[in-house]
Amino acid sequence: MTFLGNRTLTPALAMTGILALFAGCSTKTAKPLYLATGPEKAASYAAEPPAYPLARAEENPALEKDPFADESLDFLEEEEPATRMPDPLEPFNRLMFKVNDKFYFWLLKPAARGYKAVTPSRVRKSVRNFFGNLLAPVRVANCALQGKPDQAIHQFSRFMYNSTIGVAGLFDPASSHPLLQPQNEDLGQTLGAWGLGHGIYLVLPVLGPSSLRDGAGIFGDGYLNPANYVDPLWAAISLRAWNTVNDTTFRLGDYQDLKEAAIDPYVALKNAYLQRRATMVKD
Predict the structure, then answer these.
(1) Of 120, 161, 174, 220, which cross-links 187 as Cys (Cβ 3.0–4.6 Å)?
(2) Mean pLDDT for the chain?
(3) Which residues are CB-contacts of 201 (< 8 A; sequence separation ≥ 6)?
(4) 191 lies in a domain?
């Protein structure tokens, strides 16, 4: 979910933002004060949002590499999940899975393909860098909350370096420094590191696989995402839509592969989510 002050951006508004963007809706730059997504999220799932694990670069690997992405897709294999999670809302979750599946194939994927066709790779990479840099407050705060002061300092230094030398985060010179590599941290991971379990499994509209714990984490992290404080409301929706469509251009293909290879795509995606989140919490 996305928040704007005390207002909640509903999934329907998010879908409207995607359609508006594809139709040529203009956007505004976020004011100083995400990135999910989604399942973001980022990227990455939390961070990042994108709703589904669609992490395959289709162009020059050196150019397309996402510093926040987990390049390994081993977690997509249908193996015994690293952590069991109750699914008492399975009928609702399966319904949301179908809704998100249609959203991806009918709206998000066509929008991403059209955007990719008219936008150079280097521009799309700079857009991704910009939105990733905006999420620095989330990473810094959660590094600190997990008792990692050195990493918190490194992430703050990375933000300052990319915001200045990297021209407002459009470029990522900080990644050339060993101590300034990106750390994918979010409140869901922090709560897990503190010993809080997932609770129950949830499939969120548009955002995709989550849990009671990670859903609360998305809510909390939303207050540290500068893009959520953009006014008016349509501009915030447009920014989120732009980020989602841009990020999806780097991730076209793998969701289809997972769906086609799985006996039950719902279970496969659930297991993939559990395994990946368990690995992220242990880092």
Answers:
(1) 220
(2) 79
(3) 85, 86, 87, 89, 93, 209, 210, 211, 270
(4) yes
